[in-house]
């Protein structure tokens, strides 16, 4: 009798390209992987080449996208606005290419979890479930994200890093 191969859900996670976002996102990725999901963490080319990115493992693999500054990262940009604009243009293109690459693999991407600051990722992930990961640990930060990014209400789910004792006063 031939054994059927079970498809593991494949989650693509796209953190904002700074250590303060990548490290907690990698911990979240490992947690999801421990539940049996296949995880791909998409970091920028610059972070991958020059920083100490998380080491891929059997449970979490690393792939890359561009922020438009592949050789110098944020330090090449003349301003934060220029960096974010270039990252949106380059990120949209390379994130779409990454999803397409996996589409023809034996384990295509099933959903995308992206950092709230990368609101444009939703435009690429529009045909699959998409989740916003909010790094802040309190409701006011979440409200800022919803106010700042007009498409946050289009995501399938918003993930907020928090716990009950921190917000026991919030109903």
From TrEMBL:
UniProt keyword Glycosyltransferase, yes or no: yes
Gene3D superfamilies per the UniProt record, alphabetical: Glycogen Phosphorylase B
Highest rank taxon of the organism: Eukaryota
Keywords: Glycosyltransferase, Transferase
Keyword Glycosyltransferase: yes
GO MF term set: glycosyltransferase activity
PANTHER family, sorted: GLUCOSYL/GLUCURONOSYL TRANSFERASES, UDP-GLYCOSYLTRANSFERASE 74F2
Recorded family membership: Belongs to the UDP-glycosyltransferase family.
Protein name: Uncharacterized protein
